Amino acid sequence: MSVRIKDYQLPYNSHKLYDVFLNETEIETLVTRDPAMICSWIDSTESSNQSRLHRLIVGIDIEWRPNFNPGAGQNPVATLQLCVGKSCLIYQIIHAPNIPRKLRNFLNNDDYRFVGVGIENDVKKLLNDWGIGVSNTVDLREWAMEELENDNLRSYGLKGLVKEILGIEIYKPKRVTMSDWDDRWLSIDQVCYACLDAYLSFEVGRILSSWYN
Questions:
Q1: Residue 212: which pLDDT band, with cuts at 50, 70 and 90?
Q2: What is the pTM of this model?
Q3: Which ranges carry the 3'-5' exonuclease domain (predicted)?
Q4: Which CATH fold would you assign to the domain 3-208?
């Protein structure tokens, strides 16, 4: 697996724009805490997928800063990642001045299918930390298990599912997994990691959806 990134080096405090490349696939990635940019991304995504809005697949994931104190609870969700097609949003919710209504409506659209691994726990944490609900969720492990008739897939992580479904070996470095996701400026490694988690969730869901149909 080859991963590289192009930083557009925009001169704004509100958002950053990148192209993340997975092998030859280019994923446009917006990193922002600005509610207006969130709304713009949603508008663009829905406009670009008009013919699929009744069955839209959305890859979803979250990250938060790990707490290394055994007696302390988890830190709140720092980033919410969404991906549709080759367009990814990394929403730095922990630094956002407010959560736009358009995002809440997007996440609660019953026509959209939000897919991820361990998504039930992610959605529960998102609700507990920020009061954001996600209505129509599908755990990719359960979906893959049904489609492939393989009960072993129930215990797979995203890495295993990606290898099984997409035939791609991915590397998830622990130093990035356990990094400070609540930093105001995410590192290049964090952007790649967060983007690919959401994008690969989308891709697995897209393939499973095509099999299902």
A1: low
A2: 0.96
A3: 35-213
A4: Nucleotidyltransferase; domain 5 (3.30.420)
